[in-house]
Amino acid sequence: MSNRRTFTPQQKSQIVLDLLKENKTIAEIAAEYEIHPNQLLRWKSEAMEKMHLLFNKDSDEVDKIKKKHDAEVEDLTKQIGQLTIEVNWLKKKSGLK
């Protein structure tokens, strides 16, 4: 059995924001969230290393995934419409409707 707690990316980002605000000491934040200070420092350094990716428009993966998802939804909606027409036509021709 694992006693490790897991944190969502949203929770980690909120904790790192608390660290960056510097309103509290690392020890206070560690005690508040019950996390070892070394872990907090690792999260903070990782956030600082990757912060430039937030502003990089060339590799914006979220937009690519969203566009792909929207295209798939549109395609599936078209398929549903076509199948509905075909089912209604078949019902009409078979005399079930």
Can you describe this structure?
- The protein is an all-alpha fold and 97 residues long.
- It has 2 domains: 1-55, Orthogonal Bundle (Arc Repressor Mutant, subunit A); 57-97.
- 71% of the residues lie in helices and 0% in strands.
- It has helices spanning 9-21, 26-33, 37-50, 61-94.
- Helix 1 crosses helix 3.
- The longest helix is centred in the C-terminal third of the chain and has 34 residues, at 61-94.
- It is elongated and about 75 Å long.
- The relative contact order is 0.06.
List keywords for this structure.
Arc Repressor Mutant, subunit A, single chain, mainly alpha
By DSSP (H or I, 4+ residues per run), the number of helices equals 4
Summed over residues and divided by their number, the pLDDT gives a mean of 89
In CATH's first tier, which class of the largest domain applies?
Answer: Mainly Alpha
What is the CA-based Rg, rounded? 25 Å
Helix content: over 70%
Largest sheet: none
What is the strand content?
Answer: under 5%
